[in-house]
Write a structure and sequence with these properties.
Number of strands: 10
Structural class: alpha/beta
CATH class of the largest domain: Alpha Beta
CATH architecture of the largest domain: 3-Layer(aba) Sandwich
Number of domains: 2
CATH topology of the largest domain: Rossmann fold
Radius of gyration: 18 Å
CATH superfamily of the largest domain: P-loop containing nucleotide triphosphate hydrolases
Largest sheet: 6 strands, mixed
Order of helices and strands: EEEHEEHEHHHEHEHEEHHH
Helix content: 25-40%
Number of helices: 10
Strand order of the largest sheet: 6-7-8-3-9-10
């Protein structure tokens, strides 16, 4: 479980997050949604530690991550998996080398142990035998699946996904959603997904946090979101762009 408690963050005179408190539960896909500029990306970066918070604390299963020194944070960072927007594969490395990258950086496993782990992760995302392909040979959906394989290579307790469906067609996006939901439950990870995609909200939103103007404005599940009486949430859901995605 991850808890963000009373998080505030400003850049200069502009306050982006305003005393935000939210809990992300294990074994569930926890979605952060909101309009561009609402603060949802800043919230994720604060939780991961990419940004220093001005006020509040971030708690990973009883460990106050936000108060730790850099060396102390290293252990928790090894428990984090990250799926970056666009996949962020290394273009000069093969699929196998991309997935093995965190293992080389953070473990002392033997070459065989690393190879076995890479094969397991690639099989889990249905990319067995893709080891020697280069990123330039992959489709958009395959790139995301390799990125997921890399994100779970260290068997993380916590998985963060930044706009995982960005740039994908609806059918491929649904496959990525399903895969994220499956591995979340299979490995009992605490998964946090930052998304604009209402299809993701309705398909895999076990828990949803709606950020509006730097505030936590609404919380609920996918079964609650379409029946909410929250005006700002409804404006977000039924905006022209998102309504097209629901058709």
């Amino acid at each position: 479980m991850i808890e963000a408690r009373n998080i505030s963050k400003s850049f200069g005179d502009k306050q982006i997050l305003k005393d935000v408190s939210v809990r992300f539960d294990p074994g569930k896909t926890n979605l952060i949604i909101g309009q561009s500029g609402s603060g949802k990306t800043v919230l994720m970066k604060c939780v991961i530690g990419l940004l220093e918070i001005d006020k509040g604390e971030v708690d990973y299963d009883g460990r106050i991550y936000s108060s730790m020194k850099i060396k102390e944070k290293r252990k928790i960072r090894q428990e984090l998996g990250m799926l970056f927007q666009g996949g962020a594969l290394f273009d000069s490395l093969t699929v196998q080398e991309n997935v093995m990258f965190p293992l080389n950086m953070f473990t002392k496993q033997s070459p065989k142990e690393k190879a076995d782990r890479v094969n397991f992760c690639l099989e889990r995302v249905n990319l067995e035998n893709a080891n020697m392909l280069m990123p330039s040979e992959l489709s958009g959906g395959m790139i995301k699946r390799v990125a997921i394989a890399r994100a779970i290579s260290l068997n993380p307790k916590y998985l963060f996904c930044d706009e995982p469906n960005s740039g994908l067609d609806p059918k491929t996006a649904d496959r990525i959603d399903k895969l994220i939901a499956e591995i979340t439950k299979e490995f009992n990870m605490t998964t946090v997904v930052n998304t604009h995609d209402m299809n993701s909200v309705l398909n895999i939103g076990d828990k949803i946090a709606y950020i509006h103007d730097g505030n936590l404005w609404w919380e609920g599940s996918k079964s609650d979101v379409m029946n909410s009486s929250n005006r700002e949430l409804n404006d977000f859901i039924f905006s022209t762009e998102l309504t097209k995605r629901l058709k």
